[in-house]
What we know:
By secondary structure, this protein is of the alpha/beta class.
Amino acid sequence: MKHDVTNLKLAAAGQKRIDWAERQMDVLRLIHQRFARQRPLQGVRVACCLHVTTETAVLASTLKAGGAQVVVCASNPLSTQDDTAAALVTYHRIPVFARKGENRAVYYRHLNTALDTKPHLTMDDGADLVSLLHAKRPAQAVSVWGSTEETTTGVVRLRSMERHGVLRFPVIAVNDSKTKHFFDNRYGTGQSTIDGLLRATNVLLAGKTFVVAGYGFCGKGVATRARGMGAHVIVTEVDPVRALEANLDGFQVMSMAQAASHGDIFVTVTGNASVIRPEHVARMKRGAIIGNSGHFDVEIDMPAITRRARRSFVVRPFVRAYEFAGGRTIYLIAEGRLLNLVAAEGHPAAVMDMSFANQALAAEYVVKHHRTLEHRVYTLPEALDQTIARLKLRVLGLTIDTLTLAQRRYLAGWQQGT
Ligand code: ADE
């Protein structure tokens, strides 16, 4: 079996961590058991371009249990857990093409290798596989049954492809399931971003001014968790409704130009480019820390900032100092790539459980329905979202109420008023 991972000797350590993650992924375990019985993916070739983490390993083995032939490559050059990659190859016999720290050329070589397996189904986190298929391998794109997409940024790219009429197969926007973005984006990104920041820097958050750029679900999570650690939180936004929401949630709201001189720590989670620019960095305090938890490394304009710096050097793992004229220094975490996956381990398994339950059911859905789906971006049917929520409640041991007949009639009617 071909593969390209950093070190197979890490496999045993990786498998222990996969086992640990699996214990917290009860919904996916139930799906795994059903897949093993029913084999809904029998003979289906699946190429997964995801962050290579312990949680992704649990998903990949679930797909394999369902009968799929799975290949895995990384959706980010820095997020791969090398021990997990080794364990997938050694113990799960799943080919992996991913090394933490791979350069851009190797990253794309790995994506191409995954596509060389001629997948029926692709699974993306950021839409790089779909984009590569359409841009460089269009003849192959027409033979793909469909794809699934994990993240907001990927869905934005795919909807742009749909609008431009270039999408060659249907895509399920897993991100848009409620049981994905309500939980993964908010509680996952919230916790894992603080985790990455602390592992990289070990700074005290209490009393610090913490600037969060973007108040989508990810921004809400980061702002709430930073406040929970005792930081004063400022939110910057471009959307007036989200800005108001942040204000009424109790956060200070201002422009990045204003926030720049107040912040001790800056985290971008906007999904957009050049949110922190040289003119902002020029106003920052000595020792300010900047990082990003958005999907791509474009939110902090590092090329422009680097050009203005006198020099840069690594001060500890995943922390690079940029020194400017006069000796003022600021610190960048994880080279501006998503710090929650680079400096920590990504979202906790208990939240990825729901995200990847959506992925597994989306894969099954595409296999069942691809012949009747159009070349569009779909969300999973509401009923499957509800099923995942109910399963999660069940494994958490939580009971909820059921509508009585009278309540159902009341909701369905219009006559009864004041
Ligand atoms: N995205 C964010 N956290 C993740 C994780 N733990 N595994 C895979 N993808 C992720």
